[in-house]
């Protein structure tokens, strides 16, 4: 089987890229190792920037038929002080986020890709890759696939990054504990961010009337001090009356662990191929915009391919200029993201500043 473009990974980055590239007239294969999409370790909150991309491509009606709105965030300083933040209303811009249960959301995007002509291969894990005679070959358990252009959308533990030696070394050792808690039953349309100690935080998203989506983010170092996440969580619940009331009834929940939650590469492009989404770089969930960044990268790729005259259908070989232009766009986007996240990490690592800002903005 031969395709103009093969996309590995049907998360938001891969499905949206496949959807956009297929609309440009290319034959596109989208391959995903899961037989059906499951919930992922994610706050399941889509920021207004991401909603804007989806509405632009698919229209508001279908988006609001499938997902409910989030109006903003409640941010709690370490002192417990609450700051109520509404998404800003700016003329011509979307002023709401969405609750996006990831099994439903990821499948929704796969369906959009399918409808635009993408050939989707579910339950097909890419085991190996090779690059010969200006073509990429993808090896599965039982079949192979050939493509002129490869898009690595396979997340933070990307096989594509490993195969092309794109990973860079870093010392950021964050870890996430994530679970669904029974909700208090009140209908709420705002996410919550609780800033704790030493840069730890808890994000809560009222994903449905039934469940709250909860993530505790900490560092390896802090976890070592407390030995288990249970003792760490217990410590925070004992210090915080609001959180304690919220979670005291929930002894019976299942926590999933995600590590590492930081991923950095030294190059976003390679021979006749590029990385999109988390595979291209993920600096932690603090700003709550991973999915929006994934959609942005797909949008950048489609934009560069549209602009590149040599990439017309059946003339797919001169890919390196696409890679270079895409790398340029993504580099400046990711650099801004990295420094914004680093700045916020610094801030939440210092309770004094957070409490002070809480006083100013409350
Ligand atoms: C604790 C936590 C909370 C978060 N909360 C939020 C949030 O509230 N909002 C937000 O916007 N972002 C959040 N994020 C980030 C968000 O989850 C990611 O940025 C987003 O999922 C990136 O999408 P992606 O398509 O790049 O990767 P993924 O969603 O990871 O998709 C990659 C896909 O590739 C597939 N794959 C991998 N290897 C192979 C292979 N060899 N062959 C075939 N398929 C393969 C995987 O099965 C997967 O489906 C959070 C992250 C963490 C860790």
Helix content: 25-40%
Q: How does CATH name the architecture of one domain?
A: 3-Layer(bba) Sandwich
**How widely separated are the two ends?**
59 Å
- Unreliable residue stretches: none
**Order of secondary-structure elements:** EHEEHHEEEEHEEEEHEEEEHHHEEEHHH
Structural class: alpha/beta
State the CATH topology of one domain: FAD/NAD(P)-binding domain
Shape: globular
Total beta strand runs? 18
Number of helical runs? 11
Strand fraction: 15-25%
| Distinct ligands, ions and cofactors found in the model | flavin-adenine dinucleotide
CATH C-level class of one domain is Alpha Beta
Radius of gyration: 21 Å
Report the major sheet.
Answer: 8 strands, mixed
CATH superfamily of one domain: FAD/NAD(P)-binding domain
Mean pLDDT: 90
Structural descriptors:
single chain, 362 residues, alpha/beta, FAD/NAD(P)-binding domain, eight-stranded mixed sheet, seven-stranded mixed sheet, 18 strands, 36% helix, binds flavin-adenine dinucleotide
Description:
The chain is an alpha/beta fold and 362 residues long. Strands 1, 2, 8, 9, 10, 11, 17 and 18 form an eight-stranded mixed sheet that branches. The protein has a seven-stranded mixed sheet with strand order 6-5-13-14-15-12-16. Strand 5 and strand 6 form a beta hairpin. The chain has a domain at 2-41 and 58-67 and 100-168 and 265-348: FAD/NAD(P)-binding domain (3-Layer(bba) Sandwich). The longest helix is centred in the last third of the chain and has 29 residues, at 320-348. Helix 1 (12-23) packs parallel to helix 4, helix 2 (48-58) crosses helix 9 and helix 7 (229-239) packs across helix 8. It is globular. The model has no long low-confidence stretch (mean pLDDT 90). It is built from eleven helices and 18 strands. The protein binds flavin-adenine dinucleotide.
């Amino acid at each position: 089987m031969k395709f103009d473009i093969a996309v590995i990974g049907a998360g938001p980055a891969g499905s949206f890229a496949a959807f956009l590239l297929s609309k440009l007239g290319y034959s596109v294969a989208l391959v995903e190792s899961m037989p059906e999409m499951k919930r992922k370790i994610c706050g399941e909150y889509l920021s207004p920037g991401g909603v804007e991309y989806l509405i632009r491509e698919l229209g508001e009606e279908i988006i609001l038929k499938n997902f409910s709105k989030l109006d903003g965030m409640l941010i709690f300083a370490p002192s417990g002080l609450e700051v109520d933040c509404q998404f800003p209303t700016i003329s011509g811009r979307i002023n709401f986020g969405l609750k996006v249960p990831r099994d439903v959301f990821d499948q929704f995007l796969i369906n959009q890709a399918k409808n635009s002509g993408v050939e989707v291969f579910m339950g097909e894990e890419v085991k190996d890759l090779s690059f010969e005679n200006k073509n990429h070959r993808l090896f599965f358990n039982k079949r192979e696939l050939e493509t002129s252009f490869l898009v690595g959308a396979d997340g933070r533990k990307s096989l594509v990054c490993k195969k092309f030696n794109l990973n860079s070394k870093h010392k950021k050792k964050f870890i996430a504990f994530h679970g669904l808690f029974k909700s208090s039953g009140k209908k709420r349309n705002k996410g919550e961010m609780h800033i704790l100690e030493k840069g730890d935080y808890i994000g809560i998203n009222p994903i449905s009337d039934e469940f709250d989506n909860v993530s505790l983010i900490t560092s390896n170092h802090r976890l070592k001090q407390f030995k288990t996440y249970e003792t760490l969580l217990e410590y925070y619940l004992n210090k915080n009356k609001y959180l304690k009331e919220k979670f005291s009834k929930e002894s019976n929940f299942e926590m999933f662990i995600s590590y590492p939650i930081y991923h950095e590469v030294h190059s976003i492009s390679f021979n006749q191929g590029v990385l999109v989404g988390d595979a291209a770089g993920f600096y932690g969930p603090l700003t709550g915009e991973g999915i929006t960044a994934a959609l942005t990268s797909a949008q950048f790729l489609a934009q560069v391919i549209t602009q590149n005259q040599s990439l017309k259908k059946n003339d797919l070989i001169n890919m390196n200029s696409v890679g270079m232009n895409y790398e340029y766009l993504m580099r400046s986007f990711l650099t801004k993201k990295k420094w914004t996240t680093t700045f916020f990490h610094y801030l939440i690592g210092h309770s004094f500043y957070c409490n002070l800002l809480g006083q100013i903005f409350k």
